[in-house]
Amino acid sequence: MTLRRLKAIALKTGFWLLVAVLVLYAIFPFYYAIVTSLKPSSQLFEVSYWVDSLDFSNYVTVLSQPTFLAAIRNSVVVALSVVLIALLLGLTAAWALGRVRFRGRTTVMMIVLGVSMFPQVAVLSGLFEVIRTLDLYNSPGGLILSYTIFTLPFTVWILTTFMRQLPDELEEAAIVDGASPWVTLTKVFMPLLWPAMATTGLLAFIAAWNEFLFALTFTLTDSQRTVPVAIALISGGSQYELPWGPIMAASVIVTVPLVVLVVIFQRRIVSGLTAGAVKG
Amino acid sequence: MAGLTLERVNKRFGSTQVIDDVSMQIDNGEFIVFVGPSGCGKSTLLRLIAGLESITHGDLMIDDQRVNNLTPPERGIGMVFQSYALYPHMSVYDNIAFGLKLAKQDKQTVDERVRQTARILQLDELLERLPKALSGGQRQRVAIGRAMAREPKILLFDEPLSNLDAALRVQTRNEIARLHERLGSTMIYVTHDQVEAMTLADRIVVLNAGHVEQIGTPRELYERPASRFVAGFIGSPKMNFIQVTAEADAEQGCRVEIPAVGQRTLPLALSAGGPSETTLGVRPEHLIPTASESGEGLEIVNVEYLGSEAYLYMERDDGELLVCRTQAPSPFRRGQRVTLDFDPTHAHLFDRDGRAVPPRARREARPEPQGADS
Ligand SMILES: Nc1ncnc2c1ncn2[C@@H]1O[C@H](COP(=O)(O)OP(=O)(O)OP(=O)(O)O)[C@@H](O)[C@H]1O
Ligand SMILES: [Mg+2]
Questions:
Q1: Domain membership flag for residue B232
Q2: What are the residue boundaries of the ABC transmembrane type-1 domain, all occurrences included (chain A) (predicted)?
Q3: ipTM of the complex in this document
Q4: What is the best residue among B12, B13, B157, B213 to mutate for testing ligand 1's pocket, by most ligand atoms within 8 Å of CB?
Q5: Torsion-angle region of A262 (φ positive above 0: left; ψ -120 to 50: alpha; else: beta)
Q6: A176 contacts in chain B (CB < 8 Å)
Q7: pLDDT > 90: percent of chain B
């Protein structure tokens, strides 16, 4: 009896220990960035694990740089556009792939999946040519186009999977009520696909927000850069100085919106999924 | 005027023929029920009429206008689905109003229609609720409300009661019958429950493997089934079938030789010719059991007591069961032996292809076929 109890306690301790390690592993870099960002530059290289001074000078430095503010604006524009376009195209594609019976449907699905397997570097030079031809070099348009290419496959896949789960009779009821495919999609399916759309939209947003390689390659001037590139290019007073304080402050500033978004949408996603689980 | 006409309607999915040359005429205001075994094409036929599937070939006419290529609302139909298929994120009000809004009705008309529909179906109290907060019977009524809000000429139901429990089924069945009375619109109703079919229908269409076996009033189907299939499908417990040899008899109709019963003469017009293999069909209520003292006859293997009546099951030599419906309480007991007889005026005879042998023409008309024969 006691042995069993002991075992239970040991298991529980082990479990929470594991959780602690995982949380530490995931959170610590971000936590350390916060701590560092709040230090004055004089204390920068003293190792400490607690916030022992509240010094916002790094934040002031970063936010007073017009290029950084422009970068945030660019990132917001690019990420939101990518989410909107990916959801719109994803939803309509999912309707076709999940609801309309046509020849070669599986093939299309496989191609869509296949496209998402190319590494970014492999398409970089080709995409560069495309963007030059379309005259989108050094503009948000080029980034929106290239990010959409990479977010669409999983958007389409996830939405198609969800779309297939909706009962056929629902669509037929809408048809009998006189709804066109577009009305059915927007008035009947979209409200029911809301959890799936929140999930895919969030993933698309994060992907676009964090992307570095394309952002570096397809932009030239400071005014067109997005946040990841802008942070990487923050430079100090001289060639030999890396301004860690402002870099950390900038990192915290751009991470906070993501955290907030995830927290907001996570609730919706969870509530949406449980509501869908009970048959309506 | 014909409300709805099907002319040699066919439907193929790939290479499988699901609906095979179906023709029928449905009058305005009629209540038509499609019955048939599972997979016979009832739902498909209904969906062809609705416009949810395309007709492979053949014509569908509503009010003498060909509607093959029209959308469901253009055809003026409303449909109630088996799973109700209510829009889960819309309130009862919005569910009913959805089609009206799409038909570009102005706000006031929509509101009036929705409230009127709700009043007819006693949904007034529930208008603001979401479907998930309704009971099965209430969801059913909302589904009907949604279908009838646009005042379609034709209302289609695909097994609307199959998700309800027995008591609610009887109640909703009654409500549908009353609704038909009140609206006067044409209704086509799919079911595999023959009680629903018998009680609701003006005329029943029996389908089998994609073709029409018989169309007729419940009474016609029960008393004069056109084929062995219909005879076996309509009626519960099922009609008893016995293999017999029959021979036409110009004077009295036809003579049948029944194993373990003997020779009987039936008032049926079997076509002339030598003795032929046929199937005799007798409904359970037309079998007359008599207790046999001498130990001959058949043994009763089971007695089912249902309160108002009782069913006796007799085993034949070949292992087949015969059913007999008697009054309850029944004087017979399990293990007892009985001899059976039947009323020849209520017997049916089916030829080798399963077609029913028609009844003999009335006495006045009798000389005519005889004259033609000789
Ligand atoms: N979309 C389809 N593609 C191929 N075959 C189909 C399709 N829809 C129906 N069928 C076939 O058509 C036949 C008739 O189907 P249907 O649904 O009309 O039967 P039913 O009489 O309504 O049966 P149940 O009583 O089980 O509902 C079935 O054999 C079915 O497999
Ligand atoms: Mg069916």
A1: no
A2: 72-265
A3: 0.82
A4: B13
A5: alpha
A6: 50, 52, 72-73, 77-79, 99, 147
A7: 56
